[in-house]
User: Fold these one by one.
Assistant:
Number 1:
Amino acid sequence: MGKRIIFHIDINHCYAQIEEMKHPQLRDVPMAVGGHEEKRHGIILAKNDLAKRGGVKTGESLREARSACPDLLIIPPAYDDYIYYTEQVKNIYREYSDTVESFGLDEAWVDYTDSQHLFGDPVVTARNIQERVLREIGLTVSVGVSWNKVFAKLGSDMKKPSGLTVITEENYRDIVWPLPVGDLLYVGPATQRKLHERALYTIGDLANYPEYYLRKNMGAAGTMIHAFANGLDPSPVALNSFRAPVKSVGNAMTMIHDTESAEEVRPVYFMLCESVASRLKDEGAEGNVVTVTMRSSDLNWYMHQKKLDAYTDVSSEILHSAMELVEKNYDFSMPLRAVGVTVSGLRGCRGGRQLSIFADEQAHDRSRLMDTAMDDIRSKYGFYTVRRACTAVDPALTGFNAKGDHTIHPIGYFQGRKMIL
């Protein structure tokens, strides 16, 4: 094993397994947790093993699922329960490390590097965690153990339920490289098609392809996935008390339910952009590159970015660029499950602003004053004392403190790196 020891732990078919834990009789029938068709969230969120054998797929519509499996029992989601039980599971992880990074409700990375001096062999500890989660909570988890986050996640996906896969610097070519290239983190359908056009079908094919040509044709994304295929992922696991590094400021979340349009996801992005703008002001920084990340309900990741004409730390300006990227690059043929926004290209605020004949400087100043006023009110009287009207449309979706209760997804690879724009 290399210098670092990283666990990725995944609660197997999380929502469905929690329902089975609450109601054991559900284990004997094909069952899925699904959204509400009348509220336009009629998709399969999770399924049990019997439903999977019946042809039910996560992310498909309830109608498609019933067509594939006529006996399917669909349970409405109980998000409060899912949040409660997944947090109890993660509390077990936190007994072994103070460095636990959530990746949605059901997944987390754990940096075990220093903890091995206290708890010993990482494989033994991983088994102990699996046994404790099953004994104390009643859920099964799969674990990947590796020296980086990407391969650790790949390992947890390989054997379910209750699987344990160890990927080392000595064996990764045998374990990882034969896998389909689409199994690699951030390789979604569009990227996979581009790689197939170059006869790159396995992760090994990608790893051994000249990085120069990937960078030339795919930009930063090509460089990133080439590095990932070779196990080159230095991004750290976020501390429980995570504080964004000064080279970029970002926030992301897995939404309480999937969103099916730009209009529906806009309030979520507004919440995230507010938190990013507030952190930029805390850092005394402003940036000129906005990056959005999106995770669809079929678990594929998408990333897009743009360079701004002027530096900013204003939430409405960050939101404008973020939504422009979303509307330009995502058609919502598949609902979105998780979203994120990052501002990079940072510099210290200089007490002044380069004037532009194209920009409305008065609007900029008014928006910044509004941001500052809201931050002051929230710091004195609590986050929920003031909020934008647009974020009150769907309280279940936007009822969170994006700055205080944020969930960061692994964008760390990009932090401190020059992006090709």
Number 2:
Amino acid sequence: MIERRAFDSLGGADHGWLDAKHHFSFAGYHDPAREHWGALRVWNDDTIAPATGFPPHSHANMEIITYVREGAITHRDNLGNQGRTEAGDVQVMSAGTGITHSEYNLEPGVTRIFQIWIFPDHQGGAPSWGSKPFPKHDRSGEFVTLASGMAGDEQALPIRANARVLGATLKAGETVEYRLDARRHAYLVPASGQITVNGVALQARDGAAIKDVELIRIAASEDAELVLVDAAD
């Protein structure tokens, strides 16, 4: 099963400083058919104006992955962590028993991110934060694991969930494949470009909810940047 979720069908709100689109129910947007996809709870497509951002706020018991598509995001938290994550790179926050943080766009232009939340396998635990560069040329024509709690993914940023977040870039005419185990859920979004997923056409920023498919085959009809989540049931 592959369900296309067109970008213009997504929920969301334009707050002026933040233009947010929600692939799943979030904040003031609620769709009972789009509560979560397996352990994947949130996928927000956020555009943040310069010199603005999310003031200090708290989270608990959630794995929060930020994929920066354009610009950069600057993080600070009450544990003393701080860092700037720029386009193509990824940051991960394991909220655990609780963490308070802020995220600001301190760049001269807009910042665009995917904010992805995954339910942890277990609640509690000490909160943590980390960031890592993932050069796009290193994932040209193939998926690279960006964040994971699965065995064998030690080069990725760690998360506390039986899930992985992957990225790939494709040139027009290229294809890439990903094998999905039974009873798992995948969600794919092209950050840019036009693609087909097992023959289903997606435009940039559309979502594809995928399950009961053994082999995901993605073909690019133009240069594309892909983000894929593989999550437990």
